[in-house]
Amino acid sequence: MPSEEILSQSEIDALLSALSTGELSADEIKEEEKQKVKTYDFKRALRFSKEQIRSLTRIHENLARLLTTHLSAKLRTYVQVSVTSADQLPYEEFVRSIPKMTVLYLYELTPLDGNMLIEINPNIAYAMLDRILGGDGTSVNKIDQLTDIEEELMTNLFQSAFKSLRDAWETVIQVEPEMQSFEVNPQFLQVVSPNETVVVISLNTIIGETSGMINICIPHIVLEPIIQKLSVSYWMQTEEKAEDPENAEAIRTQLKRSRLPIIAELGQSEITIEEFLQLSVGDCIELNKKIDEPMIIKVQEVPKFFGQPGKVNKNLAIQILDYFEEEGDEADE
């Protein structure tokens, strides 16, 4: 027994005296001993720290915002996505917690090894499918009777939506999400061993009057190479690097090499479908610009300059005349 746990003779006498006078009972001593012992489930090993779970939550809060924007635009109705929880548990427990028939997509995050699993509640999946097909977002759970067309439409929607994983993870690592397979029965997808620890981020999704969960299951083995990057110290170091003058200059240099599409717009015109169908070679379309009016030059589809057409060494060219200013720009300045 360690020396700090050995009682002195005076402590022993005081303890025996308390027991004999009734001030302290043997049951109370046993209860105190029980309180010192904590049960530990080796099947539910905690391999992520609270700090790492918070970092994963922050990453997927960003993903939730990106999904809200993307799905709202795709479905032409407001879709709200938000993180409700982030927990670590054995893979077997996660499989038991989701419906026996659901929408499952297996994703690979290159260059990370292994796969992650995205589970979409059928209520949400069918509400979105109904919107794609022109409905009002009504959900009918018939996941075991998916047609090939329904499966293809659903897969295309979520494949484009979860490209947002790239932007959500870019503060930690540059990943390239790639969909590997589609499944409706979780028993057929053995991503990792049953006792392997996974982190499950649950996203509450609301579309119209329908709500449901999107669960993102990431095994520990996938995140192991970048686990240190999920600490607060890494985030602080990253912020310091961003403020470093040399690093800022390197970013500016890379930005200067970025390519931007530039469009010189001659003008616009509106015609009826009947007029469009009757167009033939040699016909002229009248534009809404006069020949002496300056052209609008767009950068990334945004009007930026006024210009005029010309030639340089027998090549067509545009000369920039002035900056394009929309109404209200000067007032804002």
TrEMBL record:
Coiled-coil residue windows: none
Flagellar motor switch protein FliN-like C-terminal domain: residues covered: 254-322
Primary location class: other
Cited InterPro entries: CheC-like_sf, Flag_FliM, FliN-like_C, SpoA-like_sf
Membrane topology of this protein: Peripheral membrane protein
Assigned keywords, A-Z: Bacterial flagellum, Cell membrane, Cell projection, Chemotaxis, Cilium, Flagellar rotation, Flagellum, Membrane
Location(s), subcellular: Bacterial flagellum basal body; Cell membrane
Annotated NCBIfam families: fliM_switch
Entry similarity comment: Belongs to the FliM family.
Full protein name: Flagellar motor switch protein FliM
Species of provenance: Pallidibacillus thermolactis
